[in-house]
Amino acid sequence: MSENPDLTNERASGTFETNAMAAVIYGSEKFAQRRREITEAISKIPEFQDSHPLVFMSREEKISEACRKLAVLSNYWNSLIDTSDEEEALHLYREVLGLEGHPLALHETMFIPSLIAQASDEQQEKWLGRAQRREIIGCYAQTEMGHGTNLRALETTATFDISTREFILNSPTITSLKWWPGALGKSANWSIVIANLIIKEHNYGPHPFMVQLRDEKSHEPLPGITVGDIGPKMAFNGADNGFLGFKNYRIPRENMLMRHSKVTSDGSYIKPPHAKIGYSSMVKVRSRMAMDQGLFLASALVIAVRYSAVRRQGYLEDKSREVKVLDYQTQQHRLFPSIARAYAFIFCGFETIRLYDQLLIDVQNGNTSGMADLHALTSGLKSVVTYQTGEGIEQARMACGGHGYSMASYISEIYGVAIGGCTYEGENMVMLLQLARYLVKSIEMIQNGKSRELGPMVAYLAENESEIDLNLGPNEYLKVFEYAARNQTWRATEKFQKLRNSGMSNEEAWNQASVELTRASRLHTRLYIMSTFINHVGSIVDQKVKGVLIDLLNVHVTYEVMDIGIYVQGLLSSNQMDLIRNQLYVSLETIRPNAVSLVDSFQISDMQLRSVLGRRDGNVYENLFKWAKSSPLNKTDVLPSVTQYLKPMMEKSKL
Ligand SMILES: CC(C)(COP(=O)(O)OP(=O)(O)OC[C@H]1O[C@@H](n2cnc3c(N)ncnc32)[C@H](O)[C@@H]1OP(=O)(O)O)[C@@H](O)C(=O)NCCC(=O)NCCSC(=O)/C=C/CCCCCCCCCCCCC(=O)O
Ligand SMILES: Cc1cc2nc3c(=O)[nH]c(=O)nc-3n(C[C@H](O)[C@H](O)[C@H](O)COP(=O)(O)OP(=O)(O)OC[C@H]3O[C@@H](n4cnc5c(N)ncnc54)[C@H](O)[C@@H]3O)c2cc1C
């Protein structure tokens, strides 16, 4: 079937090459090209297609479908991608497995990275290759039923038995059951388990252990292990998140991951070079989250923008033809700032992935000095991007009207998966407060006359306000954001200090200032996102692409400043606020002809998108009808439940 002419016209009005934009989004022409090649190759392999739409499947079917595809994938793996390239591998996973989770998701995102970061060279020799070849399937078991946030209160124990040189793992209470780890329930046969290291009755706190859970031949749980699935979730139902308990389960001493902390055979403990080095697997995932979430948001926007360009409803001036809903200013205001955010998140994502990779090298070389900075940055970023992604996806759903609410749009699934990120890898409020600790310390350095020692990301906290001339472009908006973040950070810190100085305990003062502190963290993070966006656009060579991204940046800076209006009242007059508001409306109009091309540039395939509304060809209505007819409820005209219950009820009522 040919493309919907409305979309053809939209594509013709684009002022730039989508391939050139994809090269900017994905960091290089080479990777953008590889993505297309991988997508193209996969589309030719029929076994990778869904056997029927995932949204009509039960959990069991979804998991089985994911396993089927993984088995097929193992035959093609080496021929489809450069297996040493993490980004290629993730693209392949996204294309073939989609976003609902699968039995290898945690193996790739946490199990292997934990082995790389936490296992000694000998341990890597023993397990890493096996994991990379997928001879074993691993997961990351940290969270317990009773504790996820407060890691110091985890209850699982690994007690060193000097006589046998083994650790004995135990789950002493119901609340100590590991609860939530992805792929733990039914798929993984090994896990990295975080347990309290106990030697001679001394608790050294949580440490990582490599633990075999299931027999490698029969896949049956090993004696001493209780393991299973935790049941259906809001989304991610292609994954078997699990529970796990230990009863006097013994593992060799060599199974404690010993790159950093060590236990010798006589039971001596060797401290790691940094107290939180064992938390690095979480930092790794958080450093990827801006990218992952940017892509979730992008997916919802591809659907909503394409659909809005083919959906006609109501009239503007021309009463002879209904207008595309994308031409309504309200629709543009609902969608375009989110397009800008999706771009900004992806740009930040590449940056934090790069920073993590560098940190990993530094730490392996004994330099842990960058850990606090990256922890603070990624804590704030994961919190802000997950929240704003959730907001943006929900707006995208509403922008699709009634059909957005149908699973045919697939937006609800994207939403469910994306907002999981507000919780996993550290609940958002908790992580904002981690960043706040860092910000408060920075203010304390300024108060103690050590401004010069501040890192580049917080140097603005020591600066004074300057005059703002909004006609000068994005950098002036950055100053507005700096003003807001600086003011709020000082205000929140001073509130905390005042409470503490009044005699309150440190903890209670912190608690009573915490809402204000989280606000400071959000503003600081949004400032970082904006400045990364501005820097990125500044570095682009292709002038057509750059021109459009400047337009998109204008949407971003004006929208973001309007959104934080309450924090800039002392800086901007109401006339200046009106000016910004008008600039935003002008920016929406400017970006309108490029809207479809901007979302096309994400190059998210139909196969991955799984959306009837977001189809690249725009042939929505005929496919919506086809999709509805394929619903299992339509297999018969009369359902057994009607025959069994409703008919007798109606018959009875007639009497
Ligand atoms: C940090 C805590 C909240 C507190 O820890 P605690 O030990 O109690 O800390 P304190 O003693 O209070 O000390 C705080 C100080 O320590 C510093 N600190 C803390 N952490 C770090 C760190 N990591 N590095 C450096 N420094 C650190 C902190 O700054 C303080 O310093 P100071 O005193 O101020 O100087 C901690 O308890 C915590 O982190 N809690 C959160 C727990 C958590 O995050 N758990 C995660 C469990 S694992 C999980 O959730 C997994 C989820 C799986 C997600 C699945 C993802 C699948 C991919 C999805 C996408 C699919 C698409 C396809 C793939 C694709 O696209 O990628
Ligand atoms: C989809 C998904 C996948 C997951 N995968 C894994 C996995 O693979 N492996 C794994 O180990 N775990 C996994 N988890 C668990 C996840 O990491 C935890 O649920 C998360 O860290 C939050 O911890 P919690 O559940 O204890 O929340 P809680 O800490 O109980 O949060 C409840 C409320 O208390 C508040 N709160 C808690 N502490 C504080 C504080 N100090 N200050 C202020 N407010 C506070 C929170 O902000 C929140 O509002 C997964 C979770 C989900 C949803």
Automatic annotation (TrEMBL):
GO CC field: peroxisome
Record-annotated Acyl-CoA oxidase C-terminal domain positions: 474-651
Domain Acyl-coenzyme A oxidase N-terminal, chain residue ranges per copy: 18-137
Main location: other
Record-linked Pfam families: ACOX, ACOX_C_alpha1, Acyl-CoA_ox_N
Localization annotation: Peroxisome
Cofactors, names only: FAD
This protein's pathway: Lipid metabolism; peroxisomal fatty acid beta-oxidation
Top-level taxon of the source organism: Eukaryota
Family: Belongs to the acyl-CoA oxidase family.
Name of protein: Acyl-coenzyme A oxidase
Protein species of origin: Caenorhabditis briggsae
Taxonomy of the source species: Eukaryota, Metazoa, Ecdysozoa, Nematoda, Chromadorea
